[in-house]
Amino acid sequence: MTTAPHSKKRVCYYYDSDIGNYYYGQGHPMKPHRIRMTHNLLLNYGLYRKMEIYRPHKATADEMTKFHSDEYIRFLRSIRPDNMSEYNKQMQRFNVGEDCPVFDGLYEFCQLSAGGSVAAAVKLNKQASEICINWGGGLHHAKKSEASGFCYVNDIVLGILELLKYHQRVLYIDIDVHHGDGVEEAFYTTDRVMTVSFHKYGEYFPGTGDLRDIGAGKGKYYAVNIPLRDGMDDESYESIFVPIISKVMETFQPSAVVLQCGADSLTGDRLGCFNLTVRGHGKCVEFVKKYNLPFLMVGGGGYTIRNVSRCWTYETSVALGSEIANELPYNDYFEYFGPDFKLHISPSNMANQNTPEYLEKIKTRLFENLRMLPHAPGVQVQAIPEDGAAIEDSEAEEKVNPDERLPQRDLDKRIQHENEYSDSEDEGEGGRRDNRSFKGSRKRPRLEKGQEGVEGDLKKEDDIKTETKENEKDDKTNATSEEAKKDGSANP
Amino acid sequence: MPMPAEYHESHGNHENANFGLAATQDASNMTANMYRVGDYVYFETSSTSPYQIRRIEELHKTANGSVEAKVMCFFRRRDLPSTLIMLADKHQLASAEQQRSESPASTQSQKLENPDSTKDMTSKDGIGPKVMNKGGGKGGWLKAPLSEAQEPHGMDEGAGGGGVSELSTKQRHQMKHRELFLSRQTETIAATLIRGKCCVTLLNETESLLSYLNKEDSFFYCLVFDPTQRTLLADKGEIRVGSRYQADSIASVSLTAAERESDPRRLQDLETLVWTPRHSLTDRQIDQFLVVSRSVGTFARALDCSSSVKQPSLHMSAAAASRDITLFHAMDTLHRHSYDVAKAMSSLVPSSGPVLCRDEMEEWSASEANLFEEALNKYGKDFSDIRQDFLPWKTLKNVIEYYYMWKTTDRYVQQKRVKAVEAESKLKQVYIPNYNKAPSSSTAPNITTVVPMGNSNSSNGKTASILNGSSNGNITGDASGMLVVGVGGKPCESCQMSQSPQWYAWGPSHMQCRLCQSCWLYWKKYGGLKFQSIHSTFQVPTRIDDVDLDRKRGGAGSDEEGKGIGGAHRPHRCSIPSCGKEFKLKAHLSRHYASAHGVDLRGSGTGGGGGGGSPRPVMKTRSAFYLRTSALARAARRLCAAQLRTRHAARAPHQPVNAAPLRHLCASPQLTSKSPAELRLLARAVRPRPRPRVTDIATRLGDHPSPRQPGDWDWLALTAPAQRKQPDRVSFPRPPKAPDGSLLYERVPNKPEVDRLPLTPPQPQPAMQTQQTILKRTRPPFDEINGSDGFYSDVDWDEGIALNAGLPCGPPAKRAHHSQQLHTKHALEHVAPSVLPLAPPLNGRAAHPHSLPHGPPLSRSNARKQVISWMDAPDDVYFRASDQAKRLRRTLSSVELRRAARKPWRRLPAPLHPPHPQRASRGDDMVVILD
């Protein structure tokens, strides 16, 4: 919009008018139609005219094999409902058939969903936008060579890979009720992507996402899992989301964020078991948006479609920073929203099995893990050290109490960022002063040397571990004050 | 577009229904007694055993108005075989130790399987319980202190290792009652047996166990128990590591500026801009343009003939022109003309006339819409089939788009109402008032039905072997009356209190133990004693052994269950009256039987098939057993027929028999002094029923060559066909005859064939005509609701089963008749089996308990009968006759042979050879195959 450019973000929205016409099959809960319902609501709410609307390209096989295996993509490209019988063996291998059925236009659907996320990521890279939205994406279960949980091609991974070209560290947050296993697995061993997933755990698809799954190799501590129980309500969700994301932002210091907004964590979802309202769900978007980082929002689960489109419409309005009425505007699918025809929904009176104590315990444990991360600000101010010297230096760095300096630094950065965005339209490509990614590129200088880096890095982690143990007492005493400060700094 | 009110109600019921209910009524009481899908509940199977813990998966209203719940089972520690418990504890110790050795926050996937223990178990019994680690990394699911708390008392105390004991002994003991094992097994129970809510959560390592102990009715689980495979597994997925799983093109740093430049892709290739907010128009101008384009659309509809037919009024045209497609087109037009309103506006009215944007909803003609609905009825939402067979001129996308718009119409609302009626039986929640009845009321289904009479003669070397007898016989008397008020004033077995408003008998009757009210409640809820029993002699077994487990596994549907009774906590006692020794394990008991009494427990049914070779029958999944009555018992039945009401008892085997007078009678010298031969005579006493010979009757009938009075015999003469009374309605008319005189039956097509049938119904034949009318008569509501021609009215449209009225439906007359015959036959056959509850699978003719569909309700509780899977079924045992056996059989007359087959336990009076044909064949020839 023309008014108040400083408070409003430049939002790009990706949508293909065909997406609503893909149909998973009779009785299948996944309905791409929900994306069209969202789109129509956006139009009639007048949000459509406030953002850049793009029709994404169809991602090519080349683009998709940046993550997926060639074989798998070839298979997806060739399989059709009428030739399924020839592919029996491969269908089993790639887990296509039951949850992930073969339907007409399957490959195109994948192309559109992946195309949107990739284009959005490129857009963010070029700094042509601050927030990109692709409700057709967010298919977080897809694996490298395997479909899973209604997901075939992992558009999120493809988007993040794109972002990694320009951003040293990318944060992935997943508020789907299911664990974001596909994304977590894809980046399980890298320290450049931190995956944070809030999900129902225990006798629930896909079965992964234990608190103790924290990543492997270089990626150890870079996977954060928050296992939750039935009945999460807005209040408890916020009570765990805010502190954890604040802490993650602080320790990991990403330069771009991807948020998977799976709407099956809403109350009354056909497959979900949480009790969130549209508002509570949207609060997560609001909170992440406050960090003013390049921000990619994607869709995901969501199987009570009227609530999904409510939720995503609201979240689009949050991203745009413009309020919308609770009264739903008339649109082609208005009748879906009866009997109240309101935007917001009320929670049910289901019991919340997540006690405050439980959430507190989880939080403490995750904070312990996050403390294991090499402290980003400390490493960042380092001049590029020689390989051998790195360890001692970082040790010395660790001993310095980071609390003192951090918040101010954080704050500074944030101010600077906002200015940048207001100017960025006029700047040419690459003209932006991106401190974060620049510093980040210096963070792990040794890794440029290739394989040696892995061992060295592991060693370093061990050292840090012992280091932290020594410092644990200090940390514990500091912990509470530290958190308080950081929470404050997260809400400028 | 205003919608009918009903539509609103039915549409949003999802999230709002629950809410409204709870809000309007007394909240506290309502929520406590309101059971929803997903709730964890206590569920009472028997008054003597603890509650079972279940999770409600579905709630159904049955035809008679009662509510059934489909539930997922959780098992207590005591429900698991001891071997598995040991394994679970070991596994957990290992993981705890592993966790201790690692840094506090880290656990990388590790194989935790304990190979030697697994092997050990496998060799011990043939089943091989295993802890399978699906994900490999079930690392340390319990903290070290818990792992000690979890140790069963049988285990080596030292094994716990150096962990700090956070919990007191008492707490450890109680902790064991809070652990559950999830199973993926479901069963169906009557909702009235639900006895309250509880809470079951997956234990998280960060939690302290005390939080469970301190909270009433809260349980945790870590492992999943598979009752059919008898395995435990950690329910955990796995994040795999390796180049095949991770994204591999991640450089360690982001690209340099030069590399970024070299990216050949241009943004234009990746995306097409269709709208941008950066323009000079105000919101107001955009809105105006939208109104203009809508008015152009309205006008265009007025000009368009096809549209003016569809939308006769101006209002309808305006409404159609306001659909989203016009708006999207308007926005696109604005964008295409660089947000110049004037240019955009003129493009709306090109030389060819005003622009008309129509979506699928409008595009489709009325007949196409009808076709679509018909197709939807026929195929369900299989849109590619619908397109192919009904609307080939549409694209699949057209059809799908139309479907989603069609859902907003009145037509859909009507369909939905039909569906809602069907869905009514599926409930979201159910209100169950507090359970106040005396516990004895629910005991009925669980009480022993067959009271074993004493077995005085063991002349054939085999006493009547009654499985479960150990737990059955002795407690029957007092199990029915649960409220034992004064059993000699013993203190509470658990808390040693001597005062309580209510006492409950507990444990084996000879111990005369009892529990005070609070401890009883604890026992019911948590399946153990609040405090460990002080009796060193009588250890409370913390688990049910195999037999009980089998009973559990069978779910509510099995027949043996009724016999199993809540003997869960009782040790195994030898059923030989003079002996009565107790054993902790059933295996021990059977060894005792074999050694002390020469009873081959496992072989008793299978004709020595078990022998010493296979260990399996002892641990058999589902012990098939039969009651073999002794001569004394049979004699007693005859003598006590009056008290016993044998026929009644046979029909209602689940009702307890008052054994006291019978026992008294049997113990009386009148009976005990009799010799076996006399007894046998007594038993047979009533049996020979004088039956006149056919010839006598025939001659007697022939003695009257003419009726005494004229007309006496008229009723015997056949009525002439013409005079016969015709039924008002022929339900199943005789099909037409073929030229050769045979009846022409209409073939009933299978479902796939139905799908393939041509659209036009086959020419109805006369017989079919009647069927059609019947159909219509029986299903009027559908016709009314649809308001249409009733052609596709009798169809559950969501199921996608298409049955056009013209097609033959319903079973043909012949078949119906057939099944009826079958039924009566069954009923006849099963009079006997209900007396003799189970016939052993012998002689290759396994009489399966589950083949009694018409028998009296033998199952415990009112749970629905389930078809058991083959996994649960008794092991297949079949008898391979050796040559010798075959030869022997040939010596028997067919009558004898048949009789032997029916009563396989009876000795055959075969003179020459070993008395029992089965026995005779023991040896190499004999092959018993257990799968």
Automatic annotation (TrEMBL), chain A:
Reactions mediated catalytically: N(6)-acetyl-L-lysyl-[histone] + H2O = L-lysyl-[histone] + acetate
Enzyme class: hydrolase
Residue numbers binding a divalent metal cation: D176, H178, D264
Compositional bias of kind Basic and acidic residues: 397-420, 447-492
GO cellular component: cytoplasm; NuRD complex
Annotated active site: H141
Keyword Transmembrane helix: no
Localisation per UniProt entry: Nucleus
Keywords, alphabetical: Chromatin regulator, Hydrolase, Metal-binding, Nucleus, Repressor, Transcription, Transcription regulation
Entry annotated with the keyword Thylakoid: no
Region (Disordered): 392-492
GO molecular function: DNA-binding transcription factor binding; histone deacetylase activity, hydrolytic mechanism; metal ion binding
UniProt family annotation: Belongs to the histone deacetylase family. HD Type 1 subfamily.
Full protein name: Histone deacetylase
Gene of this entry: LOC107264025
Automatic annotation (TrEMBL), chain B:
Compositional bias per record (Polar residues), positions renumbered to this chain: 95-112
Source organism: Cephus cinctus (Wheat stem sawfly)
Stated family: Belongs to the metastasis-associated protein family.
The BAH domain, residue ranges: 33-236
Name of the protein described by the UniProt record: Metastasis-associated protein MTA3 isoform X1
Compositionally biased region (Low complexity): 849-859
Keyword set includes Acetylation: yes
SUPFAM superfamilies with a match to the protein in the record: Homeodomain-like
Keywords recorded for this protein, A-Z: Acetylation, DNA-binding, Isopeptide bond, Metal-binding, Nucleus, Phosphoprotein, Ubl conjugation, Zinc, Zinc-finger
Residues covered by the ELM2 domain: 237-352
Keyword Zinc: yes
UniProt-listed Gene3D superfamilies: 2.30.30.490, 4.10.1240.50, Classic Zinc Finger, Homeodomain-like
Domain C2H2-type: 572-597
A GO cellular-component term linked to this record: NuRD complex
PANTHER family: METASTASIS ASSOCIATED 1-LIKE, ISOFORM D (PTHR10865:SF29), METASTASIS-ASSOCIATED PROTEIN AND MESODERM INDUCTION EARLY RESPONSE PROTEIN (PTHR10865)
